[in-house]
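Customer escalation, tier 2.

The customer says the design service returned an amino acid string that "doesn't look like it belongs to this structure." They asked us to rerun it and document both sides in this ticket. The original structure tokens are below, unchanged.
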């Protein structure tokens, strides 16, 4: 996440999160720290994983006070170990106390996604299949969660509804058939957009290929049917496997030969990575 995207896209969302946590004042902090005092706190890792979201973590504090300084011993994508010191935050103690939970919420969530994603990417090594995320993200967290997937070694599917054409079962139902849905998409959408079609059986696959779909999503199909689908689509369209894909069951898919495997679990089921701010002291 570069500085431009942070300013244009992330700042507003981070401010919304801070406003959610501080509607008028932080009365606990105001009670024990009524005036400015310079302090420092340590960012500690409490379990092994992949760190992601350090710039977002730091931005929480600098939005509260630009003079806050965050120094890290790691960068996004690095492995971290339980008990390891990842960084220090220096600034007004009131800022360190008021921003702590929001900053950790972002960093724990993003690092958890990166950690879970990395574990699945390792299972796909040597298969030639790339791992994709989905739009099954937390509202107002998509930019952060999809970034975390990339940090973990996964790839981003379309970012939102304006980003690509994916004709799913209800779109096909609305159009009347796979063929008609693809025809209508080609008539409406810019020629630079690829058209992806979700199919549930081999008959739908054949209809989508005949209609000229660019990508075929094989949704909840049996392993045997997916293998046949890959053979039928070879040289005609790319293939994507989807449907309840998790770390526990992905092994059955690695030898099918699909170009992509998409998993909503990357963003909706990844547990957080446990991190903590400790040892706050005046300096």
């Amino acid at each position: 996440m570069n500085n431009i995207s942070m300013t244009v896209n992330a700042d507003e969302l981070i401010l919304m999160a801070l406003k959610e946590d501080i509607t008028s004042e932080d009365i606990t902090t105001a009670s024990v720290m009524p005036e400015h005092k310079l302090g420092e706190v340590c960012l500690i890792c409490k379990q092994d994983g992949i760190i992601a979201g350090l710039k977002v973590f730091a931005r929480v504090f600098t939005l509260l006070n630009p003079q806050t300084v965050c120094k890290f011993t790691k960068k996004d994508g690095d492995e971290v170990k339980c008990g390891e010191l990842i960084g220090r935050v220096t600034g007004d103690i009131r800022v360190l106390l008021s921003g702590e939970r929001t900053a950790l919420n972002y960093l724990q969530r993003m690092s958890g996604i990166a950690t879970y994603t990395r574990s699945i990417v390792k299972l796909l090594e040597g298969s030639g299949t790339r791992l994709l995320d989905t739009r099954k993200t937390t509202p107002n967290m998509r930019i952060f969660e999809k970034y975390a997937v990339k940090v973990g070694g996964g790839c981003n599917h379309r970012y939102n509804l304006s980003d690509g054409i994916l004709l799913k079962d209800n779109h096909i139902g609305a159009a009347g058939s796979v063929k008609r849905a693809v025809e209508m998409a080609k008539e409406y959408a810019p020629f630079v957009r690829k058209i992806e079609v979700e199919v549930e059986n081999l008959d739908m696959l054949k209809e989508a290929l005949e209609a000229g779909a660019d990508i075929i999503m094989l949704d909840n199909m049996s392993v045997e049917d997916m293998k046949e689908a890959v053979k039928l689509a070879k040289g005609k369209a790319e293939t994507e496997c989807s449907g309840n894909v998790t770390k526990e069951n992905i092994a059955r898919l690695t030898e099918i030969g699909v170009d992509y495997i998409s998993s909503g679990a990357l963003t909706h089921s990844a547990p957080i990575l446990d991190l903590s701010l400790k040892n706050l002291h005046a300096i």
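Tier 2 assessment: The sequence is consistent with the input. The radius of gyration is 23 Å. The mean pLDDT is 95. Sent an explanation to the customer and offered a walkthrough call.
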